[in-house]
Amino acid sequence: MMQHKTVAGVPVGMMVRGGNDRADRQARIGLLLRSTEIAHQRWFAARVMTGREKTVENQLGEFGVQALVPMRKGPDLRRRHRVIPGQMMPVIHGYVLIKLPLDGQVLAGLRAVDHFISLVGGFDNPLPLTEVEVMRFKALADDGTYDWERNTGKSFWRGERVQMYDGPFAGMKGEVVSCRSDGKGDVVVLVEMFGGIVPVTVPIAFCEKM
Questions:
Q1: How far, in Å, CA of 13 to CA of 6, rounded?
Q2: Mind listing the pLDDT tens digit for each residue in 77-93?
Q3: Which one, 17, 39, 103, 129, has least CB within 10 Å?
């Protein structure tokens, strides 16, 4: 279960603005590069542009920052009586797991990363994940638990309340917007994040009825 923590370091509001300024961007990159020198680090979920998850993971790797995009097998395609196996895709579109110190100044360095949008919980009060949670999430993804074609036996109706039990949104509750009726694929859930109500698309296996 993710827990709220008070972030150490310089408040984000006091950081130098102007993410397009080259000097400011280099300063933020420097923070990320030096973050590896800090022993105690936590996992966080970062919201990124959909389709750029692996790009963000690779860029962070170049900065020496540990990042992870758990993958799953996507939907099979059926063409003229042939089944084309689904391609690999992120378990959660638009999110990357990142391991950094629980320090506001270091976390704000993520603004220098291309395609980065925000942290789950925000910079001032991010929601950390434990190492156990992240490794369990990855192991389940590697085992095919979240593969699109895997039948979970679950189905939800629009407007139903659900709680998520896996991944970076574990413990969060929300309202179903849409869901397939065959127990496969994803479910779209409205959850409260980033100061508002945000739709997230997650594997149906994540959710249980409340």
A1: 15
A2: 988 889 999 999 999 99
A3: 39
CA distance 172 to 164: 6
Res 146: pLDDT: 96
Give the chain's count of helices (H) and strands (E).
4, 13
Q: Decide if 134 contacts 45 (C-beta within 8 A).
A: no
Nearest-10 Cα torsion for 58, 64, 66, 72 = 20
Q: Compute, in degrees rounded to 10, the torsion defined by CA atoms 83, 88, 93, 97.
A: 160
CB within 8 Å of 201: residues ≥ 6 apart: 92, 93, 94, 186, 187, 188, 189
Strand order in the sheet with 161-164: 196-203, 186-193, 173-179, 161-164, 207-209
